[in-house]
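Work package 3, deliverable 3.1, input record:
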Amino acid sequence: MPDPVLQTRGLTAFYGDFQALFGIDFEVLAGETIAIIGANGAGKSTFLRSVTGMLSTRGQGITLFGQPVDGVPPHELVARGLAMVPEGRRLFPSLTVEENLLIGGYRRRGSYWTLNRIYELFPILAERRHNGGTELSGGQQQMVAIGRALMSDPKLLLCDEISLGLAPIVIRDIYASLPRIREHGTTIVVVEQDVTQALAVADRVYCFQEGHVSLTGRPADLSRQEITTAYFGAAEEHA
Amino acid sequence: MDWVNAVVQGVLLGGLYALFASGLSLMFGVMRFVNIAHGDFIVMAAYGALVIVGATGLYPLWTMIAIVPGMALLGFVGQRVLLNRTLGEDILPPLLVTFGLSIIIQNVLLEVFSADSQKLQAGWLETASIPIAGGLNIGLMPLLIFVSALIVIGGLQTFLYRTPVGRVLRATSDDQETVRLMGADNARIFAYATAIASAVVGIAGVYMAMRTNFDPSVGPARLLFAFEAVIIGGLGSLWGTLVGGIILGVAQAIGAQIDPGFQILAGHIAFLFVLVMRPQGLLPRMRG
């Protein structure tokens, strides 16, 4: 069995006094694509912020590439092979598309993902390379955000809500790029509210609810009823 | 002709103000904090040049060879050791710490050098001038300072827009949090920014010492001129900072032409006028 790329054991996280995560057990193996689904406020983004070191988790419970990440700052984790497509894309508005991509390569680990390969993956970006990052449509901006994360040649790519606010046809294009990214050995974790999309792409799914893992398994093994309950809460609460 | 002369002298004076301001502008752009001790760093560089000239008898301009890298190193270390610890969610600590630094620097300079007014003697350069049509003369030293400001700002602009480190500085200016997710270490980037800003402070300090009298207490007024130039020009734009410096210089020169006591006040009035009419500055680049 391949080694876990990312593993958490009993991970908790707080915003001040507010507890956002309650003992999350999570594991992603090398080469897998994992989807984390859940409603707003379920703790999905908090989980990613904890894993990337952006949110202090009091230093317990996270192992990345076989090493504990206690107090390791985000830029060090990037150097180890982590890359993130942040929620809301967060492009640098005063930089061009190409400059945004180049910033992603600030800590290049390997040599596979180059500007040219990003432009092959998303041809529209080659045409827009000298435009300001925020002059693009939402879908194109999302492509820049993904390309920017790939430029560091990551072992593990985390994508936070990459379909948010985009038209269905655009979402399909974005998701079509994931298998190509995966072909080069990159492990992928997508956080997604769009359950259909998530189930289509993932090897395994984790469903979060109110800071707990409410369900986990292979998409084929999970019934619609199970997922609905795990996503929204127990049925009797709504009765 | 007196008025034309006043405008020309004001433009050239604006070059010095732009040099005062561009370090401040760069630090604010990247780290979003105003270094209250900026003016005192300029004065410190001036005293550094004074000490070197006193010890070696060198021509004042040559002191830049030591002062500029010396200030850059001081800025780099100071940022890493002290200022980085003050930066965070709260904007108050860096203001308080640099305000404290300002007081410390002024008092140490006062203790060591006394309150006597000083000036670096630049000899022939102080009196040399180029005659222009109609009895108008341009002093060689003001012209040298102005051209230096153009070179410094052009150089900074090229650095920011044409080099990888410059690109990361601009990205940091846009979004400090996201740049960390790209693998950039904020603490190091801030130290680069302060080192570069401090190098410019070194240049500004030596020129100030050659051009005007100075004593340990003149720092805060230099900070004010720098700050006004940055605001008039628009935050985050270095060419805007040059324009801001020129407007401030011209306003002061015209004020002085009306009445010698009116010089400084006229600069402040021009600043307030821009602040009321166009609060974002003339050439703003920064959003939010």
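The two ends of chain A are 43 Å apart (CA to CA).
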